[in-house]
Specification:
With 281 residues, the chain is an all-alpha fold. It contains ten helices and no strands.
């Protein structure tokens, strides 16, 4: 196959909204690759106790980057097939089936990355697993329960790919139980550890921002879940929203943790003493 035989979608062949959707998928992929590189390069430029957070960030970025490579590649192949179909009904069926397929990739990503995000949050307040394993196990179990039941809900489909609304909403309600437990445990951790003398102000502020992201930006996903069940919304809007939310929740949280860990190191040592370690070369 020559270069000129390869398919590259344009608005003329598939429409403007699908092109914007693919654009955001690729931007998310690039953001995760950049975040992975920066996490590894900056692991020695933060306070020693927060270096584990840079490792969490790198693993999260690597998994998300692989997921988005697969997502955008599958979506581009779908656009190639879409460009050859003239029937609006057949186009709608293809788009719906592709959304369900891409959703599987997203849930497999979240099953690994969301527990790591929560572990990164607990590390910010120095909540050590060996001493507080019951609390952390409850947090991780609730998160996995939320993801797995949400995944089951997304699989409530008929033979032609149509959504079985009732079963999907029931599983969505069950999944929400896990989300509520996650938020409760995170709040309990804040109450129990944020005022400890060994927790510094940058760490408290970072945890607070991360917690607000969990409460707000994680809420984007159930909204999309519900809209696909109860409305005829174009699923491209869901893809765009999820791509933006994934970048904020993964790259954004990584940036917040880095700023806090860097500030802790700066408080301990003068700038000229930390300069060799702050370099990312």
């Amino acid at each position: 196959m020559t270069f000129f035989q390869k398919f590259l979608p344009t608005a003329a062949t598939v429409g403007l909204l699908p092109m914007i959707t693919w654009f955001f998928m690729l931007i998310a992929l690039y953001a995760f690759v950049g975040n992975f590189i920066f996490a590894l390069a900056s692991k020695n430029s933060v306070a020693p106790e927060h270096r584990i957070s840079r490792h969490y960030t790198a693993v999260i970025a690597a998994i998300a980057g692989i997921s988005y490579f697969l997502i955008q590649d599958y979506y581009k192949d779908m656009l190639h097939q879409l460009s050859t179909i003239n029937s609006p009904e057949a186009q709608d069926l293809l788009v719906r089936k592709s959304y369900n397929a891409i959703g599987q990739l997203r849930y497999m990503d979240w099953a690994v990355t969301t527990p790591l995000l929560l572990m990164k949050m607990t590390a910010m307040l120095k909540v050590h697993y060996r001493k507080y394993r019951g609390m952390i196990n409850a947090l991780l179990a609730a998160d996995l329960f939320m993801i797995i039941t949400g995944y089951i809900g997304e699989q409530q489909l008929g033979a032609n790919g149509e959504i079985l609304v009732g079963p999907k909403l029931i599983w969505g309600a069950v999944s929400t139980i896990g989300y509520v437990i996650v938020v409760y445990v995170l709040y309990k951790i804040w109450q129990d550890f944020s005022n400890q003398s060994y927790v510094k102000e940058p760490e408290r502020q970072a945890y607070k921002v991360m917690g607000l992201l969990v409460v707000t930006m994680w809420g984007v996903y159930p909204i999309g879940y519900i809209l696909t069940a109860v409305s005829s919304i174009d699923t491209n809007w869901i893809h765009i929203s999820f791509s933006i939310a994934d970048v904020i929740n993964k790259v954004g949280v990584g940036a917040v943790s880095y700023q806090a860990a860097d500030a802790i190191l700066e408080q301990r040592l003068p700038m000229d003493a930390t300069a060799p370690y702050r370099s990312v070369e």
